[in-house]
Design goal:
The protein folds into four domains: 2-103, Immunoglobulins (Immunoglobulin-like, Sandwich); 105-190, Macroglobulin (MG2) domain (Immunoglobulin-like), CATH 2.60.40.1930; 202-257, Muramoyl-pentapeptide Carboxypeptidase, domain 1 (Orthogonal Bundle); 272-378, Beta Barrel (L,D-transpeptidase catalytic domain-like), CATH 2.40.440.10. It is 15% helix and 42% strand. The chain has five helices and 26 strands. The longest helix is centred in the middle third of the chain and has 14 residues, at 227-240.
Length: 379
């Protein structure tokens, strides 16, 4: 009889420890909102206290995890935020009121391809979690919607690249229950596939503005691809390690969007000039930063060289200065008979007798901005 009584007691003992009395209650609190994938914590309390009670957390009818209550009946359960819920805690037939956590989904939107007329270009979209809502993609040209597509989870939408112009891509998520809505906007300008010496196009002005924004010396903004524009393109190709063709193709347009940003080799003085013979460019440094980039041509004739070292401008001639090796335009001498001077011909390779040639439109600027005593590094 004693064995039967003991067996009945074991069978009646609840999984969490003591049996829940009629007045047992569970509370559960969680964060109001969080981002998808973040770690969140739920806090709660079991009343009355049941030592060692294991509190289970459920998302709907699905078990998530369990945690033992503390000695005062409180508990804390940490999980990754992947679904909004509703969540509830349970122990021995007692459940807490449901708790919903608003989830801010993750939306990745990026362009795939090259924003050049005639090239393949698409917008790629991915939503996490995939069932957080419906994705609407709108492609807008000249203020009018050109394409509208709806996606689920992930996908891509091709962008027409038949004509020049600015394109806006609007991506909205119509959120499902428990998820927060969100949106992204991308803007891209479709550029021409090819510009070269002699081209006449509004894209030439766009090219010059892009180069100027990256601190390359440019002539006045214009629509004609002339010799001065060619020099600016050469400077960009030199710094970026591109072939020195002077042709603005799809590769160069793409590099304008993701350029290599050069840094001065010398930190002091804060204002100085640097002539980089390897890249055949001149850097105007202001406040320790590259403020202007000009193409140069240094010594390239057999028997001649451009000296290397630290020098300073000691003489300036305001106009044309005849020399045994030719006429120099607005030369700024930095050592002996070596000068930085203007020249109508600055090829993308070493070709001088030793001086540092820069385009005439550049020397017009440098002559006025570089004072006597200005430090010149040549390397």
């Amino acid at each position: 009889m004693r064995r039967l009584t003991l067996l009945l007691l074991v069978l009646m003992w609840p999984a969490g420890g003591l049996a829940a009395g009629p007045s047992a209650t569970l509370t559960l609190k969680g964060p109001g909102a969080t981002r998808f994938g973040h770690r969140i914590e739920f806090d709660g309390r079991l009343t009355p206290v049941v030592p060692g009670a294991r509190i289970s957390l459920f998302r709907g009818d699905s078990f998530v995890t369990a945690k033992a209550a503390r000695s005062d009946g409180t508990f804390r359960i940490a999980v990754r935020a992947e679904r909004p819920g509703p969540f509830h805690a349970a122990w021995s037939g007692v459940s807490s009121p449901p708790v919903t956590v608003q989830i801010h989904p993750l939306l990745d939107v990026h362009l795939v391809g090259t924003p050049v007329v005639g090239k393949s270009l698409a917008v790629s979209v991915r939503l996490q979690p995939a069932d957080a809502g419906a994705i609407r993609v709108r492609v807008v040209r000249s203020g009018h919607s050109a394409v509208e597509r709806r996606l689920r989870g992930a996908g891509s939408v091709r962008l027409g690249t038949e004509a020049l112009g600015r394109v806006r891509i609007l991506v909205d998520v119509v959120a499902g229950p428990g998820y927060a809505p969100l949106s992204r906007t991308l803007a891209v300008t479709l550029r021409p596939p090819l510009l070269s010496y002699g081209s006449a196009s509004a894209a030439v002005a766009e090219l010059l503005r892009a180069l100027g924004a990256l601190h390359y010396a440019i002539p006045r903004v214009q629509a004609t691809f002339d010799g001065d524009v060619l020099e600016s393109v050469y400077a960009f190709e030199k710094v970026q390690g591109l072939p020195r063709t002077g042709v603005v193709d799809a590769a160069l347009w793409a590099r304008l969007d993701r350029p290599r940003m050069p840094s001065p080799r010398f930190p002091q003085p804060a204002d100085h000039l640097e002539v980089d013979k390897a890249h055949q460019v001149l850097y105007v440094v202001r406040g320790g930063q590259v403020a202007l980039i000009s193409p140069v041509s240094t010594a390239g004739i057999a028997g001649y060289h451009t000296p290397v070292g630290r020098f300073s401008i000691y003489r300036k001639v305001p106009g044309y200065d005849p020399s045994p090796l030719g006429v120099l335009y607005k030369p700024m001498y930095f050592v002996g008979g070596y000068a930085i001077h203007g020249n109508p011909s600055v090829p993308p390779y070493p070709a001088s007798h030793g001086c540092v040639r820069v385009p005439n439109f550049v020397i017009e600027r440098l002559y006025g901005s570089e004072p006597y005593g200005e430090t010149v590094f040549v390397y």
